[in-house]
Write a structure and sequence with these properties.
alpha+beta, 20 strands
């Protein structure tokens, strides 16, 4: 059950060296955990953990860091709603999926749970297929959100810390979509003034002389001209020069360009090149994360248990937001005629009350039998026992919608069906699954672009894991060390640097912290023409080191 090998297909995917995600059950009755173990038998995508004492549950959640928590509603000392409020009071646990388990089907209880931050509410225990599908979806969303946060933190840190000016622009129009702080310093303009301006207007033609700046940049953006050009920097200081490098890429259906402006004033005067590394981020990823977080909240379902009693209260009937239809049996249950139809039902079905009163349900809604609701009418009319018709798709030539019905019998013998339209929620669920796939694709695209940019930069750059092992490096880094790339990847950085630089690296590593994530070090001598190295740590939200960035060269 705890096998770390994840099934193929639509199964969840996690790092190969990580155990399967943990699901924690908090319930004072151990029989629930035994039943849950049986439901999970043969599943390899998740592990189960159990906390029987609700008073210790919060500490267990913070210690075990589960991907999803199942909480029983009724427990002694600390009930499920109290534990839910304690979880939501901790900012680090705001996005932790919490599923309430209960035999209580009261709409008021469900509504209270959702208002307090519950992700889902299940009548324990649901069918195995439904339970596993819901939990797998919640775990997948949590992992996607976690990956996005760490990716955003990593790339935002790289983006803001660059000493090269970076612009992201529309490929066709040249409109600037984003830029980093170095771009503001280079141009002498604020971020607000640059956003929306054409990139081609940064260089008036007279500053270049024979070359026409807008024409050159337009060709660069369209991919008709590549390489670098030394031109006057787009600022009031005409003595400064920059090299321009353009990298076109696609983001969704949009064609965009990444333009790197490197200040080469010193190289222009003394033929020295300043080396930089670059990354990018876009507002669309932030929007995607916010959308993912907002859409992770499951729909809130409030059932109408007994909206109409023995005598129907007309005010409640007319103002109830749920659809209500009252029927009279005809021919010993062979058919049912409409007796009453509230305004909400008329609005949902797109018909007036006068169009259905006194008519057969089989004529007004010919799909009622294939929908399964007609059989519910017959059973409730004959037995007198209320029955719920689960969420199902109703369709005929006029109506195509998702409905959930609750049917019961009045003392007068009439049937009452209380229902609501869940079409919007169903479409939202489909859109949510599609958005998750889109976010995962964007993450993969972002990693490819980042790798391409890393190799395109002349500056030495290596990305290390938290233990100091080289995960990736660019050609400039290999050339800096005078080694083949195949002999660098997977090696400890200590074994690649000379003795003095390795010792200085270890000392710099001990001085890093979330408040001081970057440290410059050197071995006291020029290392292949580069006196210094820059070591920068990328931290996760919980303070752990995600990876290390090692940059080498002059003014690293």
């Amino acid at each position: 059950m705890f096998n770390q090998n994840v099934p193929r297909g639509n199964a969840l995917r996690f790092p190969q060296d990580a155990p399967p995600p943990l699901i924690l059950l908090v319930d004072d009755q151990s029989v629930t955990f035994r039943m849950l173990e049986r439901l999970f038998r043969g599943e390899q995508w998740a592990r189960l953990a159990y906390c029987q004492d609700p008073a210790e549950a919060l500490q267990q959640i913070q210690t075990l860091q589960p991907m999803t928590v199942l909480v029983d509603l009724f427990m002694p000392v600390v009930d499920g709603l109290t534990l839910l409020s304690q979880i939501r009071a901790i900012p680090e646990l705001n996005d932790l999926p919490v599923v309430m388990l209960s035999s209580e089907e009261s709409p008021q209880t469900k509504a209270q749970a959702f208002e307090m931050g519950a992700t889902d509410y299940l009548i324990k225990l649901p069918e195995r297929i439904e339970l596993l599908a819901r939990l797998k979806s919640l775990v997948g969303f949590r992992q996607a959100a976690r990956d996005l946060r760490e990716s955003e933190s990593r790339y935002q840190l790289l983006y803001a810390g660059l000493r090269d000016a970076v612009f992201i622009a529309q490929l066709e129009s040249g409109e600037i979509l984003d830029c980093n702080p170095e771009a503001e310093r280079l141009t002498g303009r604020s971020h607000e003034a640059l956003i929306g301006a054409p990139i081609t207007q940064l260089h008036p033609a007279e500053e270049i002389g024979a070359a026409d700046a807008p024409t050159f940049l337009e060709r660069l953006l369209r991919g008709e001209q590549a390489g670098e050009l030394s031109v006057a920097a787009p600022s009031s200081d005409a003595a400064r020069y920059v090299d321009i490098t353009a990298i076109p890429f696609e983001q969704g259906c949009q064609k965009r360009a990444l333009l790197i402006y490197r200040d080469v004033s010193e190289r222009h005067a003394a033929q020295q090149t300043l080396e930089r590394q670059v990354t990018w981020r876009t507002a669309e990823l932030s929007d995607a994360l916010q959308k993912l977080g907002s859409e992770m909240e499951e729909r809130k379902l409030a059932q109408a248990a007994s909206a109409v009693a023995q005598s129907r209260y007309q005010e409640l009937f007319n103002n109830l937001s749920l659809g209500v239809a009252v029927y009279r049996a005809v021919g010993d249950g062979a058919d049912f005629q409409f007796v009453d139809f509230n305004p909400a039902a008329a609005r949902l079905e797109g018909v007036s009350r006068d169009e259905v009163i006194g008519k057969s349900v089989l004529i007004c809604f010919p799909g009622v039998k294939s929908f399964g609701l007609f059989d519910v009418f017959v059973r409730v009319w004959r037995s007198g026992m209320p029955e719920q018709h689960p969420i199902s798709l109703y369709h005929d030539e006029r109506v195509h919608a998702w409905r959930e019905n609750y049917v019961y019998k009045l003392p007068s013998g009439e049937l009452v069906a209380v229902y609501q339209d869940l079409t919007a929620q169903k479409r939202a669920e489909e859109d949510l699954l599609a958005s998750r796939d889109a976010v995962q694709k964007r993450l993969a695209d972002q990693q490819q672009v980042c790798q391409a940019l890393q190799q395109a930069l002349p500056g030495a750059l290596a990305i290390l894991d938290s233990g100091g092992v080289v995960m990736s490096a660019n050609a400039a880094f290999a050339a800096q060390l005078g080694r083949d790339m195949a002999r660098i990847i997977g090696q400890s950085i200590d074994s690649l640097l000379d003795l003095g630089a390795a010792k200085a690296y270890q000392q710099a590593r001990t001085r890093l912290s979330p408040e001081h994530p970057a440290e410059r070090f050197g071995d006291g001598e020029r290392f292949d023409g580069a006196p210094d190295w820059m070591l920068r740590a990328v931290y996760a939200q919980d303070g752990r080191v995600i990876e290390l960035l090692l940059m080498g060269g002059p003014d690293a």
